[in-house]
Every structure is written in C-alpha cells, then in structure tokens.
Amino acid sequence: MDTTQLLLTIITTVVFCLGWNIVTSENNLLYFIRKPFEKAIDNIEMYTDRLNMLSKFSNDTIHAINWLKKTILKNKIIYYIGKPFVLCITCYASIWGAVIYITLNGFSIDAVPLIIINSVSASFLQTFIYKLYAKLD
C-alpha cells in the first residue's frame, strides 16, 4: 500500500466519523440510534444516586441494593458498547476506522499496523476538527 492510499483512507475515515457524529446528534435524522446509549448515561447517574442514598439510610434492603448494582452494571456495559459506535468522537475511529480501512483496502495480517495507523491518525484529526467546529458553534 502506498502513502497516498493510506492518506485517502484516513481522510475518508475522518469525513465519515464527523458526518456520523452530526447525523446521530440530537434533533438529527439518526438520533434514535444514539438515544438509548445516552439514556444509559443518565441511568448510571440516577441509579448511583439512589444506591448511595439507600446505603446511607438502611441496611435491610439487600435485594434493592443488589438490584441497583446490577442495573448500574448493565447500564455501564451499554454505555461502553455505545462509546465507539455513537457516543465518543475520539473513540469512533477505533471501530469505524478499522471497518472503513478493511472495506476500502481489504484485510490481511500485514494490514494490521496500517489499520492501527489509520485509526489513531483519524482519531486525532477528527477530534481536532470537531473541537474547532464546537468552538464555532
């Protein structure tokens, strides 16, 4: 693979991830994909507050405390699954960068270092561009 092809793959990844972030943002077309993951973040905070309050006042509610702990864990798992797919602009490149690289260039064991370079480079560039964009907004 030559350098030009790698640079074009990085640029494609950055443009895709920035576009994906915009179309899955609130009040946009694909927000319904992001919404359950954002709800998990809210649930983590809400159930953690409830757990802290319940733990302070009563030790007799073991079942409620265990249920809250399981619910918090479930929501944390949902949150961490959603992060590289729809929640975190910096994290997008870890998944989408690999998918785009493999789609455009194919996969082989020799391509693994290039996939990593593509993902890290795209992550840096898209985060930088997004932060500039956020300042304008």
Structural commentary:
- The chain is mainly α and 137 residues long.
- 82% of the residues lie in helices and 0% in strands.
- It contains 5 helices and no strands.
- It has helices at residues 3-23, 31-57, 62-87, 92-105, 112-136.
- The radius of gyration is 20 Å and the shape is elongated.
Concise overview:
Helix content is 82%, strand content 0%. The protein is mainly α. The two termini are 38 Å apart.
**What is the H/E string?**
HHHHH
Q: Helical amount among residues, as a percent range? A: over 70%
Q: Give the biggest sheet.
A: none
Tally of helical segments: 5
pLDDT < 50 runs, ≥5 residues: none
Oligomer classification: single chain
Summarize the topology.
Elements: H1 3-23, H2 31-57, H3 62-87, H4 92-105, H5 112-136
Helix pairs in contact: 1-4, 1-5, 2-3, 3-4, 4-5
